[in-house]
Amino acid sequence: MKKTLLTLSLLALTVLPGMAATVNFPDVPQAKQQAKDAGKPALILWYGSDWLHDAGILCRDWSALSKSDLPVVFGQFDEKTGLDGEIRKKILPLERYNLPTSVLLAPDGTFMATFGPTVTRDTELLKKSVSKLVSKAPEFMSLAAKARASKGVEAAKAAGQALSMLRVTDAMLNQELRKIINKEDPNDESGYRALFGMDHLDMYGQMGLILKGGPDGKLEGAKRDFAGAEAFVRKALANKELKGERRQQWLAGLYYVQRLQMEHSEKKDRSAMLATLKEIVAINPDSECGKGAAKFYHYWDPKSVTEINSNFYIRGNQTLRFEKDWHVNVSSSIKGPGVYVFSLIPMENGSMVTRNYRLAVNGKVVSTANIKPDVNTKSVELTVPAGISPNAKVEVWLTAQSNDHWLECSGFIEMKKK
Fold first, then answer.
1. Which of 13, 65, 76, 103 has the fewest beta carbons under 10 Å from its own?
2. What is the value of pTM for the model shown?
């Protein structure tokens, strides 16, 4: 009994990490009003779930930050204080995962930036990031006000100039100014609709309307308006201000149109779309767009080969309705010279065509299958010559293509000595 009472007493005195996490900042409405009265931006903190292990440390660091010379009004939000409208929509994805984040608002409440968990936790880095934007706040706010008060292209220009002062990722989160651009400048005379007005999905939606012949949607297949869709994308790409990932996204749209046109043409010329994919990669090969473009380039490039180093093949190895060479590494299956049976054993019933089997050692063909190269087959005999080094790279080369819409037919690969 005494032991139980002692345990309960200790638990009552114990504060679990994060439970005491708090900052004494005003809630969002108060912070916005104070920022407006003081003519300063508002920096709003969400410190994460109350059980987040480092929430206490974060709040102590932010309390210290609030006493620094950073010229902002500090605020906080949580389930109780809440956030309204545009800002809450941008924060909720982070809030759901209990991750700390922060938002910077101009003195008039206009959204300027959001800082993810890493920056929000590092108050020194946060201070530097916020300071760069604080000095821009007066001009940004003036341009935003001009955008609201103007009409037509002038309104779009003012909104676009304001968004140009922000990081691109933050500019794309500012729904208010983006809506002004889209509404007031639908033909993109300002050039800012391509920069900020349309996100990736909006762009494809617009292209889709053009390809189908407008809202009527009467054009299909080879009759689609490929020229109109390409002209729409190239007009955006002519904008010299379109850079980085935003340019990659528009180039991806160009590739989309070029691919559709190639698929519905008799020549099946892939040179234009390959050039576009190459341009996407050149801008930034490490971005998501760059990585994706590199994969598609490899897929469509007639000179590239599919390398398979496992004992199975999957749908992703196959190309749809055009041929691609496979280089299948069978080095581990070679047990000296002799005749070997190489087999593709499908797991699903697909229409994959495989032909033209060759055996290569260190990149040089040393024997071919004793069948006609153009015969569709899944099992062949290949002769491994004597004198091959144990460390040699032995491969079976073959030509393959899939005739199924969903690239069906996955399976196992076998190389057995006869």
1. 13
2. 0.83
